[in-house]
Model the fold of this input.
Amino acid sequence: MEPGVVLTMRNIYKTFPGVKALQDVDFTLRRGEIHALMGENGAGKSTLIKVLTGVEEFETGEIKIEGKEGTIINKSPQEAQMNGISTVYQEVNLCPNLSVAENLYIGREPRKGGFIDWKTMRRQASELLDSLDIHVDVTSAVENYSIAIQQMLAIARAVDMSAKVLILDEPTSSLDDGEVEKLFTLMRKLRDQGVGIIFVTHFLEQVYAVCDRITVLRNGTLVGEYKVEELPRVQLVAKMMGKDFDDLAALKKEGESAKVGEEVIIEAKALGHKGTIRPFDLKIHKGEVIGLTGLLGSGRSELVRAIYGADKPDEGELLVKGKKLQVNSPIDAMMNGMAYLPENRKEEGIISDLSVRENIIIALQAKKGMFKLLSKKEQEEFTDKYIKMLQIKTADRETPIKQLSGGNQQKVILGRWLLTNPDFLILDEPTRGIDIGTKTEIQKLVLELAEQGMSVVFISSEVEEMLRTCSRMAVLRDGSKVGELEEKELSQSSIMKAIAGGED
Amino acid sequence: MNKLKKLTTYRLFLPILCLVLVLLVNLITTPDFFAISVRDGMLYGYIIDVINRASELVILAVGMTLMVAASGGTDISVGAVMAVVAGVVCNVLAGGEQSVTQYNNPYILGILAGIAVAVICGCFNGFLVAKLKIQPMIATLILFTAGRGIAQLVTNGQITYVRVDHYKVLGSSIKGLPLPVPFFMAIIVVIVTTLILKKTAIGMYIESVGINAKASRLVGLKSSKIIFLTYVFGGLMAGIAGLVASSRIYSADANNIGLNMELDAILAVALGGNSLGGGKFSLMGSVIGAYTIQALTTTLYAMHVSSDQVPVYKAIVVVIIVSLQSPQLKKWFKKHSLGKKAVNGNEVA
Done:
């Protein structure tokens, strides 16, 4: 191995049934660097990490780590850890009701005469945390600290177990800016101590704030490895997407031609749900695509959930086509022409063991009621119609939905709602985790539906996508709606400003 | 080879295989197990005995399957509910006396009272599980412990006898039918339930709620209502099973009717290849499971195993059957049969 290199992965191949997840991927990590692993969802980032840490097996290829002769194959995360590879995930793996010190030394407690040496443990814990500038009470339970601190503790534990390679998988997703900055300070400190850090994130700014190198993956293949200063942001995006911007720009023109009707479909008056979204007013017209924008956790999803009855609103009122509607549960909203594609596809969207057919017809069936079973023929016709229309790639209409790829699952759920023929369609992150081709298809479909008179709420973390599809936007910040942007005001910078709070 | 492969992926393959295996043992140990004789137009033999004795279990397993599928939990009160129902029916028919030779109240009144009580028990369980979101096993533990006490209260702590030939019909046989009545009760229950599942969307609703309650709610299903319904239905099934069991002994024996049957019912569901975590289910699987358990019990008796030792052998066989169906074990076998061919070609140095 070259000097300075701590980890190499060469010619890694990995296939899942029907998908080539990794093809001939190389990856090199040097000592004392922060190395971003970038790619669209489905590019193979997480598969590469899983292969490295022994969560998944790989077919061919070799992994070498500094200090070990020959190649290594990690069969489990524990084995990876013994080889010096530690991972900290977005969801922190600590025991919330144990103390900080206990969490740091769990499974490797310092012992004296067979008993746990609490004094030494606490002392070592404080020393370790002091050295990393994390200032917490080591005897206090972990649950008393924020997610950010918990993440740092998890990192501290990983590092203390003599990690040569530290993998941070989307660690910043649930952190605010200040916490992110603290995390970065810690990461830089570790880098200076010689740890190689693999940083997986989808926030571009963060890559440029903290990383030294970037490896880009696309569709399971390696695009290339770059030094940060040699790869401007625009080029990075282009490499991740594998597309020229012209393709994307073309779509926007279609969007601009969409006409908005006068009829108000949905009107919320001071609607709110305690703890998630403060009372808001919102009017949605026929044939309009309205975007909701804001940071993660700003109340985007919570706003639509209150309208749809997923979280039953506890104040304010909702008018549907001018008539007051009391929404107690989603079925009430559905009966009044609403449809909701939830943000979290796996937990709230798909019904994993049921077939594609059942997943498509279930919402319509629920609307019709238990005793009016759709005939086998109707079910099959509907299913085939949407498989064809949305180009869902599935072996059969009876294939369990869990065997489909993320993008195709999303299409099935979209088909489920289109089948109910809604007037008002809520799409919460419909394109998350799906490939760029499908993304564009979904965006086009949304514009078509609006053209036909459907009102759509579109929520996305990607501002460009919203610009392409939405004719108006509502901005949310910290659980309340703070403003609206009309079509002529819409631009990347105006949205950013509105999200951030208007001040420069 | 391909055909065989297709056969083994068929959902009911393993449950049927288990049943066949249990029956095959008899070919060697008790050859006359399969002998069937005819007397007065009635069939007799070990096999008939299995079919007859399994009836209550089949009925219970039908109800249990739906409860497990929708709630991912088990109802352990069904055995006790059987006892309560038996107590109520016998007491209504006996009009409060301890032993009667003719009905003191119309037969239909007794049956309706028993079924009503069964449904009320089901509602109670359903309320705790679906509305109060108590873990099914804990929720039904209440009736599991209290049920037999309630039955004792109903029968004043005595065994109430209804010595009327008409009352014995449900649990014995009638002229002209070659097989015992309980068998037909079980078959009717299975057919009616299958029809309900086929003709309405309830089957899909139950699976959907069992697989993903959150997603089900968002597509407009009321998961608590669906779970509640399965527990009411489970109560009803326990009631019917109680009627049959009580009719067999023309009495209400609060201490013994349906004793430990909840466990066999749960086992039947598991043997049928159904996940006890809820979700997709196969009613036929559970029915086959129920017959397997009874076949096993009868087999052991035929081999002259004394009745207090039967549970031990039953346990051993169950362990084998259940592990045969464990996906973890299948994985392990697969790995070890492939293991030698080192998948990656390079080993840890």
Notes: The radius of gyration of chain A is 25 Å. The first strand of chain A starts at residue 5 and ends at 16. Chain A has 18 helices and 21 strands. Residues 245-250, 252-258 of chain A have pLDDT under 50 and may be disordered.
